[in-house]
From TrEMBL:
Keywords: Signal. PROSITE patterns: TAT (PS51318). Residues 1-30 form the signal peptide. This is Tricarboxylate transport protein TctC.
Length: 324
């Protein structure tokens, strides 16, 4: 009787182990087969804008290089300064088939308190390039060097929206060069350029793709770049740090997924983004075309840089009494 009892127990044990193995097999297969359906790329802004171009260029390189076995479906969800799109992405917690790109609104909209999402609702995947800024003046401006900026009693610049990278950089210039800088709001980047050329404002911050055509036309002159190193597209323009000022700020073009996505999924897309960033297709279609700088950061480092950027926005928004 005792032998039979032991035999029965062994059978139950084997049966239980078999059940566990049977349950584990589909999970392993699911991981091996990921992704098994099309990805959803949420773009929190309208077609044709910077975020839209970034997302679709990433997708086109992935498709042409056959980096993943599925398609990427783009979904433009503009509205409320990115809040609509980011809300939709954030509510897809644990969903390994949703991605979104990072913009300035990813930081500023939640800080203002008007967004139904927060950064903790996302998991960074990777940073794929760097968008630096160029301090530029009208070609015949009396402001020739940063020392001239510091010697001025009062200067004016422009920004689109109350809080922007240009606004943040203007605040840095004011502090570092000890000069009062008045920031004038404009409806678009083109109006800011017109403001500089029409001598309505003294200087502007713009991306290389915005400033270079003006320099080539002889209408503007670059004073400094906000990156840590000189730009490959503008090698003759020194950085702020080269000139003795602790000013560095760039926008990392990054990709995020909803919170709760498994680490192996993040690792998968981290590897895909690395291949995109290292490809000649990415260089030709995005970096060279828009005068962006190459910069790949893995998920961990991208997360740290996103936090660093957010801290900068918090500081400037508190100083402006936008948040407490």
């Amino acid at each position: 009787m005792q032998a039979r009892t032991h035999t029965g127990r062994r059978r139950l044990l084997f049966a239980a182990c078999g059940t566990l193995l049977a349950l584990a097999a589909p999970l392993a297969a699911a991981q091996d087969n990921y992704p098994s359906k099309n990805m959803r790329m949420i773009i929190p802004f309208g077609a044709g804008g910077g975020s839209d171009v970034l997302a679709r260029t990433i997708g086109s390189v992935i498709k042409d290089l056959k980096l993943v076995p599925v398609d990427i479906l783009y979904e433009n969800l503009p509205g409320s300064s990115g809040a609509r799109g980011y809300k939709e992405a954030s509510r897809r917690k644990n969903d390994p088939y949703v991605m979104a790109t990072v913009s300035v609104s990813f930081f500023t909209t939640p800080l203002i308190g008007r967004a139904p999402f927060k950064q903790e609702d996302f998991t960074p995947v990777a940073a794929i390039s760097m968008s630096p800024y160029v301090l530029a003046v009208k070609a015949d401006s009396k402001l020739k060097t940063l020392e001239d900026f510091g010697a001025a009693k009062r200067l004016t610049t422009g920004t689109v929206g109350v809080v922007s990278d240009a606004r943040l950089l203007a605040d840095m210039v004011s502090k570092q060069l000890k000069v009062r800088v008045d920031v004038v709001p404009f409806d678009g980047e083109g109006e800011i350029t017109t403001g500089v050329l029409g001598e309505h404002i003294d200087f502007m911050f713009g991306n290389p793709s915005e400033i270079m055509p003006q320099i080539e036309a002889g209408t503007m002159r670059a004073i400094a770049v906000s990156a840590g190193n000189r730009l490959s597209s503008m090698p003759d323009v020194p950085t702020f740090k080269e000139q003795g000022y602790d000013i560095e700020h760039t926008m990392l073009r990054s990709v995020v997924m909803p919170a709760g996505v498994k680490p192996e999924v993040i690792a998968y897309w981290e590897g895909v983004m690395r291949k995109v960033a290292e490809s000649k297709e990415w260089k030709e279609r995005y970096l060279d075309r828009f005068k962006e700088e190459a910069r790949y950061e893995n998920a961990r480092d991208a997360a740290a840089l996103i936090k660093q950027t957010n801290d900068r926005y918090v500081a400037v928004m508190k100083e402006l009494d936008i948040i407490k």
